[in-house]
């Protein structure tokens, strides 16, 4: 079985798109690694075993660096004034409308949590970005970004 360079590119794009459907900020590293392998394959073909080994190593390295250096759990803003968070943007994971609460997820914790119930004056479908316009107790009010 032979895997061409464009298979890696297509697989990488699929994984990155999957990240939009499942906002975990984890799958993206495997997709970016697959894109990297596709580019390497375009420049210099390598064996199938080397492709998968390189993909595994680069994926693991990207995940490691994400958790080790970029995603620092000690950088929460828990305990700070709610006004500090106005304007922060997150990803709507459950559709919000004028009549129904939704849910938003942030890349880093806001007021001690990564996910929050939200309300809005407009319908914002899942997968779109929104920004905080008010903090109302245990609920955030958001608008489209």
What does this protein structure show overall?
With 145 residues, the chain is an alpha+beta fold. It folds into two domains: 5-70, no CATH class; 79-144, OB fold (Dihydrolipoamide Acetyltransferase, E2P). It has helices at 5-21, 27-43, 48-70; strands spanning 89-94, 102-110, 113-120, 129-136, 139-144. The protein has a five-stranded mixed barrel. Strand 4 and strand 5 form a beta hairpin. Helix 1 (5-21) runs antiparallel to helix 2 and helix 2 packs across helix 3 (48-70). The longest helix is centred in the middle third of the chain and has 23 residues, at 48-70. It is elongated, with a radius of gyration of 19 Å.
Structural topology:
Layout lengths: L4 H17 L5 H17 L4 H23 L18 E6 L7 E9 L2 E8 L8 E8 L2 E6 L1
Parallel strand pairs: 3-5
Antiparallel strand pairs: 1-2, 1-4, 2-3, 4-5
InterPro entries: Membrane_assoc_protease, NA-bd_OB-fold, NfeD-like_C
Membrane topology: Multi-pass membrane protein
Keywords: Membrane, Transmembrane, Transmembrane helix
């Amino acid at each position: 079985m032979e895997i061409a360079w464009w298979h890696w590119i297509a697989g990488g794009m699929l994984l990155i798109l999957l990240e939009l459907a499942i906002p975990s900020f984890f799958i993206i590293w495997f997709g970016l690694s697959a894109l990297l392998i596709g580019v390497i394959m375009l420049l210099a073909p390598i064996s199938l075993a080397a492709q998968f080994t390189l993909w595994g190593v680069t994926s693991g390295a990207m995940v490691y660096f994400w958790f080790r250096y970029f995603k620092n759990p000690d950088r929460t803003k828990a305990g700070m004034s709610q006004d500090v968070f106005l304007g922060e943007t997150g990803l709507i994971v459950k559709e919000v409308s004028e009549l129904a609460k939704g849910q938003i997820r942030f890349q880093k914790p806001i007021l001690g949590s990564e996910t929050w119930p939200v309300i809005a004056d407009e319908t914002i479908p899942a997968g779109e970005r929104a920004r905080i316009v008010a903090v109302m107790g245990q609920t955030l009010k958001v608008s489209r970004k």
